[in-house]
Protein: Ribosomal RNA large subunit methyltransferase H
Organism: Chitinophaga niastensis
Amino acid sequence: MKIQLWSIGKEHDPYIREGIAVFQKRLQHYVDFEVKLIPTVKQAASLSVPELKKQEAKIIMDLLQPTDFLLALDEKGKMMTTVQFADFLQQRNNAGTRQLIILIGGAFGIDQSLLQRAQLQMSLSPLTFPHQLVRLIFTEQLYRAYTVLNREKYHHQ
Ligand SMILES: C[S@@+](CC[C@H](N)C(=O)[O-])C[C@H]1O[C@@H](n2cnc3c(N)ncnc32)[C@H](O)[C@@H]1O
């Protein structure tokens, strides 16, 4: 199974890029993992936030393959432990999912149409984090989950 992390917004800040690179390198041992940026639609004066989010959603819908499993990160989504998340990854792999897309919204969040397309909405906490930090936190969690699946000494319960 291939995993892609899609983030709406601008380039990672340097400290985020550095952190992601650390876990991305470690993840190479376990899974085919890529990080992709979806540039934010420029906010023209005439465009409201809901309209802007709709435009972003259309771009993302066009990039998605019908067979992609979409996991949208949203603070109101389902919360799970690291071990439950590891089990979820194992289940997707066993189910033959070819591509798992993880979507992180931009400053205004993820459009409703994409939340509806998502097979899973996942929350990392009831707190709202800045989207740049979510990129790093999620990449670490993905690495953590794979160390659980591979019985490595990284995650201690
Ligand atoms: C700054 S937040 C957007 C908040 C916005 N109020 C909203 O309507 O979603 C940007 C993105 O970071 C991610 N995010 C932030 N906090 C999160 C959390 N606790 N759990 C999961 N994802 C989160 C989500 O993908 C969200 O769309």
Notes: The pocket of S-adenosylmethionine is lined by residues 73-75, 104-105, 107, 109-110, 123-125, 127-131, 134 (CB under 6 Å). The helical segments are 14-27, 49-63, 82-94, 112-117, 131-149.
